[in-house]
Structure formats: structure tokens, C-alpha cells
């Protein structure tokens, strides 16, 4: 039985930092990408960052570039999103998800529809 479990959300002041963790288990991640997504009520789930397991390459949405860093611990199948210089607009529920890559993929994608295995989400609130 596969599982994707996020943790690490919380309340942080603007300018602060948080590190989100994602534990993936129960399936072979070799041909997968792992993505982080943010959802705000009434809006579509937005891709923040992703990593392609096979080569470790990452992608970031423009708002995350320079502030967020996606890292992995392959031995533990753990994935982390380090979020620095947080802004109120970063507030939302953050989801980790795994998506099986199409053959010949050269990079991971930030569309939520490319991911099948989802965690339950962790809430991030950036507020003073």
C-alpha cells in the first residue's frame, strides 16, 4: 500500500522559514517525480516545485525561485521543501505528490494532473 505523508507546516511570520517534509513509501520511486503543490480555498492546486528522481533535476515556479529549495534523501525516500523569506501569499495547504513520468521525460512538471499519489496536505500560514 503506497503512502505519501507531509509534515512540517505551521504558523510563521513574514520573512521566516519553514521546512516541509514528505515521506513516500510502498512503491518504487525510480521513474517518478515528486512535486510540491499549494492550494488556497477557491483556487486550483498550484505547482511549486518538483524533482525528477532519476537524475535529481528540479523545477520551480517563478514565485519560489531563489526562496525555496527542494532536496531529497534517497536512502530514506524523504523529500524536503525548504522555504525561506516567506510571504503572506505563500499561505495555503501544501501537498506532496508522486507522479509516474512518461517514457523519455527530461524533466518533471508542475501540473497537478501529472501526479497520481497524493498526501493529505500540511497547512502553512504566513502571518504577523
Short description:
This protein has no helices and eleven strands. The protein has strands at about 5, 10, 20-25, 30-40, 45-50, 60, 70-75, 80-85, 90-100, 115-120, 120-125.
Sum up the structure in keywords:
128 residues; mainly beta; 7-stranded mixed beta sheet; 4-stranded antiparallel beta sheet; 11 strands; globular
What does this structure look like?
- This protein is mainly beta and 128 residues long.
- Strands 2, 4, 5, 6, 9, 10 and 11 form a seven-stranded mixed sheet that branches. Strands 1-3-8-7 form a four-stranded antiparallel sheet, with no helix packed on it.
- A hairpin with a 4-residue loop joins strand 7 and strand 8.
- It starts with a strand and ends with a strand.
- The model has no long low-confidence stretch (mean pLDDT 95).
List the helices and strands and how they pair.
Elements: E1 3-7, E2 10-12, E3 18-25, E4 32-39, E5 46-52, E6 58-60, E7 68-73, E8 78-83, E9 92-100, E10 117-118, E11 122-126
Parallel strand pairs: 2-11
Antiparallel strand pairs: 1-3, 3-8, 4-5, 4-9, 5-6, 7-8, 9-10, 9-11
Amino acid at each position: 500500500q503506497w503512502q505519501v505523508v507531509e509534515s512540517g507546516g505551521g504558523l510563521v511570520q513574514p520573512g521566516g522559514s519553514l521546512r516541509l517534509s514528505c515521506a513516500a513509501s510502498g512503491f518504487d520511486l525510480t521513474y517518478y517525480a515528486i512535486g510540491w503543490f499549494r492550494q488556497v480555498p477557491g483556487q486550483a492546486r498550484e505547482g511549486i516545485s518538483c524533482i525528477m528522481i532519476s537524475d535529481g533535476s528540479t523545477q520551480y515556479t517563478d514565485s519560489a525561485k531563489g526562496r525555496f529549495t527542494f532536496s531529497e534523501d534517497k536512502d530514506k525516500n524523504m523529500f524536503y521543501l525548504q522555504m525561506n523569506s516567506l510571504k503572506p501569499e505563500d499561505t495555503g495547504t501544501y501537498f506532496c505528490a508522486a507522479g509516474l513520468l512518461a517514457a523519455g521525460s527530461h524533466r518533471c512538471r508542475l501540473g497537478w494532473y501529472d501526479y497520481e499519489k497524493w498526501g493529505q496536505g500540511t497547512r502553512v500560514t504566513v502571518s504577523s
